[in-house]
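QA checklist item 7 of 12: single-chain prediction sanity check.
[x] sequence parsed
[x] length recorded as 109
[x] structure emitted
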Amino acid sequence: MLKFPKTMVAEDVTITEEVLVVVLVAEEVQLQEEKVVLHQEEKVLAADSEATEIQHLVKVVLVEEANQEVPDQEDLMHQEQRDSQAEHQDVLKVHLNLDQEDQEENKLF
């Protein structure tokens, strides 16, 4: 009868060791799953951060574009007048040159 209690104790120890191994494996699996979840959360946070930065840059560009001066109708009219005056002056210069050339030719004859 002395052997029976020893066998029971040996079986209990084996069962306890097996349960501990199962518990350790379960804890390791849980830790791995938590790591995966944390990694996914980091990716989401990085993507959110990048999206926020892109939205900020788009807003900055839009504000800069809005602040650029757009020529109004009056500015365009003034520019057209200046261009027209410049063309007129060019025509006058050509005529003056032609007149001077004609006068020089007349002097020669």
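[x] summary fact logged: The radius of gyration is 47 Å.
[ ] second reviewer sign-off
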